[in-house]
Amino acid sequence: MPETAKPAWNKGRVVGKKPPLTPDQVALIRLLLRQDKAWRDLALFNVALDTSLRGSDLVRLRVSDVATPAGIRELIEIRQKKTGARHARPVQAALSRGTRDSLQAYLAAAQKPLHAWLFTGQGPRWSQSHLSESQLWRLFKSWLERARLDPTLYGLHSLRRTLPTHIHQQTGNLRAAQLLLGHASIESTKDYIGTEQAEALDIARRFHL
After folding, report:
1. Would the pLDDT of 87 be above 50?
2. Sequential DSSP letters for 36-103
3. How far apart are CA 125 and CA 135, in angstroms?
4. What band does 123 get if pLDDT is binned at 50, 70 and 90?
């Protein structure tokens, strides 16, 4: 008997690079989280955008990474730990006024000590451990659904790509995007945020046969 063909792994899925969020989408998600008074989620969303960290690094932030006894840091430095990398790569990020305000509100409500994990689950059972990447994705998916966006079109790398892509689109400064992402090679940055593809599509929009 012939073997039953297995369905393709990508059946029903959108494959390829996940797009960044647009400024309008960012503003909408922020508005909805404020309306829901979801202070942890708002702080998490804002920090994810400002730092452009991988999910694995984002969930492992400590309170001391973003705050001191005197208040919220404006500039932070994080050592990324990419799988397979021999050395952690430090990257710097600037936290916007809105992000600092959301962190201040969240930390004031949560009463976390400086050594604690920054982003934890809610409730006594989960409050002592940091969010997992799967929990982070479920949260991001819920924000997308709340904003009436299709979660199958996006991934956690959408959060990581958003600010560097926006900066490159507005300034053309690929080096700035590279530094934000912590890439060793600018070619990696070009590929990651899809600059050549975006430029090709922009040209195609202006020239038609």
Report:
1. yes
2. TT-HHHHHHHHHHHHH---HHHHTT-BHHHHEETTEE-SEEEEEE--TT-SS-EEEEEEPPHHHHHHH
3. 14
4. low
Q: Determine what percent of the chain is predicted with pLDDT higher than 90.
A: 51
Measured distance CA(145)–CA(143) in Å, rounded? 5
Contacts of residue 63, Cβ cutoff 8 Å, sequence gap at least 6: 107, 112, 113, 114, 115, 116, 117, 118
Residue 99 exposed, middle or buried by CB count within 10 Å (0-12, 13-18, 19+):
buried
Q: Region 177-206: what's the mean pLDDT?
A: 66
What is the DSSP-derived secondary structure letter of residue 18?
P
User: pTM higher than 0.85 for the full model?
Assistant: no
CA atoms within 13 A on the CB side of 183: 20
Tokens found for residue 41: 């989620």
Report which residue type is found at 66: V
